[in-house]
Design a protein that fits this description.
Blueprint (H helix, E strand, L loop, with lengths): L1 H19 L6 E11 L2 E15 L5 E12 L9 E5 L8 H4 L6 E3 L13 E3 L9 E5 L8 E2 L12 H18 L7 E6 L1 H17 L5 E5 L15 H18 L5 H4 L3 H22 L5 H15 L3 H6 L6 H7 L7 E2 L7 E2 L13 H20 L25 H11 L4 E7 L7 H11 L9 E6 L9 H17 L11
Helix pairs in contact: 3-4, 4-12, 5-7, 5-13, 7-8
InterPro entries: AB_hydrolase_fold (IPR029058), Peptidase_S10 (IPR001563)
Organism: Marinoscillum furvescens DSM 4134
Keywords: Carboxypeptidase, Glycoprotein, Hydrolase, Protease, Signal
């Protein structure tokens, strides 16, 4: 009898543990808070929980975790709603949630480096004063999970599938939250820019939901003139050079006359050289003259802070991974991929790529403890489900990526829709000049150029980690929202 009771108790404990480690399809936790943003007292309600993804038989097959912030001490009707996605694919919403637009940010220094004790602090620059914010974790990121193991992975894990199920999910959320009258904005970072560009058209065409704005933070190529993972050939090589200049300038590796200039004064000169002089030489490839190649290598070396001989060895097309290893090789340091302000050390100074991404390991120092603390202690969300900083979503079907054209078409169909690009000069993964090129190609005819804008910052992929850029980038979002709100009664027409 004692053995039976012991077995029963153990079985009960295991059942409870398993239940806690399994996500629930539909949950809600509500808490109330107050903060100060730009000197203004803000009260708000935070709702966090899960909302289902249903199959065609109306059965829940996945639980998507979200956090929704609503300002409560305002009489403003139909406040703007900003819907936020991070990237990867496979990345949780933690990055922008706890470092950019949300009401709390990481405990980091003013340049974005981790400090101890780990934790969070109130964000005095959040855009919650002007808009409500919804942070979404796509399936298998954050606390979101597949519920039905029999569900085909292709339902979630691909460019088109991701856009399709999230559009349905947003429709349900907007209906539940009674936000159909609100001006709506999508913001995405990195792969999240692919996601929100596709969603802009999917929401219009399939959900009949029209947006006022899309914000692309450190954007990918959006399927515009891309190779596998980067723009290839002469175009890709030319677009990289201004980033090389920015990273070299930051680490003081340029010649004194260039180093003495302000970065934002120098970069337009490098951009013009890359497009007007370097690209024609690259385009001629092996048929460019010896003198042309020598001259190009010398000028690139001046702008990139590495030797002309090395540049010639790569036929004027220096791989970024090599640049991260080469720029500070003489100091025994590498520079970061997503933010080249960060430096790392390798086992050996030799080689053609860094051993690890210095910036990412630095960020995970601060973000992982903070997100696990924040949900439990600030938002009262208790679960044994692990928060996936990077979730299992691969293989990811990248075929059929027409998201750049999707965004162009959404803008053409909706005269209210505006787009803003935000990029860090020191981002070596989604480079700022590449982002400019993407913006230029969104509307080749130029008829909508007054609805496209670009903002650059003196930081990297997550520009908001640096305090000065946290302030500036949030202010740019405020201005974007204000400027993209039509006057009452203004018709949506050309």
């Amino acid at each position: 009898m004692k053995k039976y009771l012991l077995y029963t108790c153990l079985l009960s404990v295991l059942t409870i543990a398993n239940a806690q480690r399994s996500q629930v399809a539909d949950t809600t936790i509500v808490t109330t808070h107050s903060t100060t943003i730009n000197g203004q007292s803000i009260s708000y309600r935070a709702t966090t929980g899960t909302q289902p993804v249903w199959n065609e038989q109306n059965q829940p097959i996945a639980a998507v975790h979200y956090t929704y912030y609503e300002r409560t001490n305002t009489s403003e009707a139909n406040r703007p709603l900003v819907i936020s996605f991070n990237g990867g694919p496979g990345s949780g919403s933690v990055w922008m949630h706890l470092a950019y637009t949300g009401p709390y940010v990481l405990n980091v220094d003013d340049e974005g480096y981790p400090v101890q004790p780990y934790g969070v602090k109130k964000n005095a620059y959040s855009v919650l004063d002007v808009a409500d914010i919804l942070f979404v974790n796509p399936v298998n990121t954050g606390y979101s999970r597949v519920l039905d193991d029999e569900t085909d992975r292709n339902t979630f894990f691909g460019v088109e599938a991701d856009i399709r199920y999230l559009a349905d999910w947003i429709n349900t959320f907007v209906t539940r939250a009674n936000r159909w009258h609100s001006p709506k904005y999508l913001i995405g970072e990195s792969y999240g820019t692919t996601r929100v560009s596709g969603l802009a058209l999917e929401l219009q065409n399939r959900q009949w939901m029209y947006l006022n704005g899309v914000i692309l933070v450190s954007p990918t190529e959006l399927g515009i003139h891309t190779g596998e993972g980067r723009r290839e050939g002469p175009l890709g090589a030319a677009l990289e050079l201004p980033y090389f200049t920015a990273a070299a300038w930051y680490h003081r590796q340029l010649a004194p006359e260039l180093q003495a200039r302000d970065l934002e004064d120098l970069l337009p000169e490098v951009e013009a050289y890359a497009l007007d002089e370097l690209m024609p030489v690259l385009a001629r490839g092996g048929f460019a003259s010896f003198e042309e190649k020598q001259a190009a290598a010398r000028q690139m070396a001046q702008y990139a802070g590495i030797s002309a001989d090395v540049i010639l060895q790569y036929n004027l097309d220096v791989p970024t991974r090599f640049f991260w290893k080469e720029l500070l090789r003489h100091k025994g340091l590498t520079v970061g991929r997503l933010d080249s302000r960060y430096t790392g050390i390798d086992r050996a100074d030799g080689g053609d790529s860094p051993d690890f991404n210095a910036e990412l390991t630095s960020w995970l120092h601060a973000f992982t403890p903070a997100v696990n603390y924040y949900f439990k202690n600030v938002l009262n969300y208790h679960t044994d489900v692990k928060y996936n900083m990077f979730g299992p979503v691969h293989p990811w079907d990248r075929s059929g990526n027409t998201t750049g054209e999707d965004l162009r078409q959404a803008m053409a169909m909706n005269p209210y829709l505006n787009v803003m690009v935000q990029s860090g000069y020191y981002d070596g993964a989604t480079k700022y000049f590449d982002a400019k090129y993407t913006m230029w190609q969104l509307d080749p005819g130029g008829k909508m150029r007054d609805r496209l804008s670009f903002k650059g910052y003196r930081s990297g992929h997550m520009m908001y980690l640096r305090k000065e850029d946290l302030i500036n980038a949030n202010d740019d979002i405020r201005d974007f929202i204000k400027n993209s709100m039509p006057e009452p009664g203004a018709p949506a027409k050309y």
